Amino acid sequence: MRKWHNARGEGKVFSFDVVDEHQGEIRLTCFNQVAEKFEPMVQVGGVYVISKGSLKPKRKEFNNTNSDYEISLELSSVVEECSEEVDIPRVIYQFSKVRDLQEMDFGSVMDICGIPETIGEAAVIMRRDGTETQKRTMTVVDDSGCSVEVTAWGTIGAETIPQLEQMFQQGLRPVVAFKGLRLGNFGGRSLSTISSSQINIDPEVPEAAAVRNWYAQGGAQNKTSLTTAYGGRADKKCTFGMLKDEQSSGSLPGTLFLQVTGTISFIRSDSGVMYPACPRMNGERACNKKMRQEGQDEKWYCEKCQSESPTVDWRYIFSILAMDHTSACWLSLFNEAGESIFGMTANQLKDLQDNNTLEYERVVSAANFKTFHFKVRVAEDTYNDERPALMRCGALSALP
Ligand SMILES: [Zn+2]
């Protein structure tokens, strides 16, 4: 179940994919009350008789079932547990070879059957909405002789990945089937789970036997990695060109930290480069919400703290266009980055702006064409994985 918010309001959506005994597959989707009604009833691996849903064409970019349609359920729809014994396959795969990912479009969703060769540590990632999610990255190779990084997000693989690690410790390298991975261009080409993804160890499919034989004969000794540049790890160096691809592909959920070296080509300063922040302490951290001046005595007022203050703390917030030899990107900068760029605190610069306009303008324009290492935070800005992620950049620090 996912919650979504947009300009028209908010709601909940729940979807699940079903397979039948004729190898048919279809996605069922329900919203709001309907989602609340059916979500507790449906279990992965359960067998159900479903009726009174309505059929509509599927949105291909988000749905890799083998049907051209999806079913939406209403409150009047019926989902009943099936009491009869039926022989229904648990998962239907349409495997792609890792090598073929080179020709596939970013955003495609596919199934992979391969052998994980490395499993990274679990990392906790902070989402932009403040919630946390977990990710595990594996390198997976198959009998096409290519390997790719696969990142499992959230609870996907929460049971299978620890099992895999145990098998690794025993020196085993089992075949794993990944159902429903999305192709992204993070670090060349890489795959990520989406909410409907599944990870199954030693699947009973013919492809698994072929991969197992190939691996046992040493096939993986000469392999080509499709994920190269900075795949999977934090604080990797990249270029603005790579950053821009990352922004437009929206391939990665969660948050990444990347290092880019670039030159400032423009500072957007028409509406100022700082804001009046609330200095009131909330525990160890200052409130920092934007204050407004009101009343005839021009006192500063903080909406959040609901209190007045005779003084404010000026903090930097502005955007710059930064570039390197590959491309240019807009970055949002905050207080610490501003201090590095202007060489003084926002309070000091505010003082110049009020009392020595010429010097203020000189300081701001002097920062143009300086080169910095930017630590850029690229964050997902999406409420469910059924729409492409919007990414945002923020320079956390800029070091000359
Ligand atoms: Zn405040």
TrEMBL record:
<keyword id="KW-0539">Nucleus</keyword>
<dbReference type="InterPro" id="IPR031657">
    <property type="entry name" value="REPA_OB_2"/>
</dbReference>
<dbReference type="GO" id="GO:0003677">
    <property type="term" value="F:DNA binding"/>
</dbReference>
<dbReference type="GO" id="GO:0006281">
    <property type="term" value="P:DNA repair"/>
</dbReference>
<keyword id="KW-0238">DNA-binding</keyword>
<dbReference type="GO" id="GO:0006310">
    <property type="term" value="P:DNA recombination"/>
</dbReference>
<dbReference type="InterPro" id="IPR013955">
    <property type="entry name" value="Rep_factor-A_C"/>
</dbReference>
<comment type="similarity">
    <text>Belongs to the replication factor A protein 1 family.</text>
</comment>
<dbReference type="Pfam" id="PF16900">
    <property type="entry name" value="REPA_OB_2"/>
</dbReference>
<keyword id="KW-0235">DNA replication</keyword>
<dbReference type="InterPro" id="IPR004365">
    <property type="entry name" value="NA-bd_OB_tRNA"/>
</dbReference>
<dbReference type="GO" id="GO:0005634">
    <property type="term" value="C:nucleus"/>
</dbReference>
<feature type="domain" description="OB">
    <location>
        <begin position="5"/>
        <end position="71"/>
    </location>
</feature>
<dbReference type="GO" id="GO:0008270">
    <property type="term" value="F:zinc ion binding"/>
</dbReference>
<comment type="function">
    <text>Component of the replication protein A complex (RPA) required for DNA recombination, repair and replication. The activity of RPA is mediated by single-stranded DNA binding and protein interactions. Probably involved in repair of double-strand DNA breaks (DSBs) induced by genotoxic stresses.</text>
</comment>
<protein>
    <recommendedName>
        <fullName>Replication protein A subunit</fullName>
    </recommendedName>
</protein>
<feature type="domain" description="Replication factor A C-terminal">
    <location>
        <begin position="257"/>
        <end position="387"/>
    </location>
</feature>
<dbReference type="Pfam" id="PF08646">
    <property type="entry name" value="Rep_fac-A_C"/>
</dbReference>
<comment type="subunit">
    <text>Heterotrimer of RPA1, RPA2 and RPA3 (canonical replication protein A complex).</text>
</comment>
<keyword id="KW-0233">DNA recombination</keyword>
<dbReference type="InterPro" id="IPR047192">
    <property type="entry name" value="Euk_RPA1_DBD_C"/>
</dbReference>
<dbReference type="GO" id="GO:0006260">
    <property type="term" value="P:DNA replication"/>
</dbReference>
<feature type="domain" description="Replication protein A OB">
    <location>
        <begin position="99"/>
        <end position="202"/>
    </location>
</feature>
<dbReference type="InterPro" id="IPR012340">
    <property type="entry name" value="NA-bd_OB-fold"/>
</dbReference>
<dbReference type="Pfam" id="PF01336">
    <property type="entry name" value="tRNA_anti-codon"/>
</dbReference>
<keyword id="KW-0479">Metal-binding</keyword>
<keyword id="KW-0863">Zinc-finger</keyword>
<keyword id="KW-0862">Zinc</keyword>
<dbReference type="InterPro" id="IPR004591">
    <property type="entry name" value="Rfa1"/>
</dbReference>
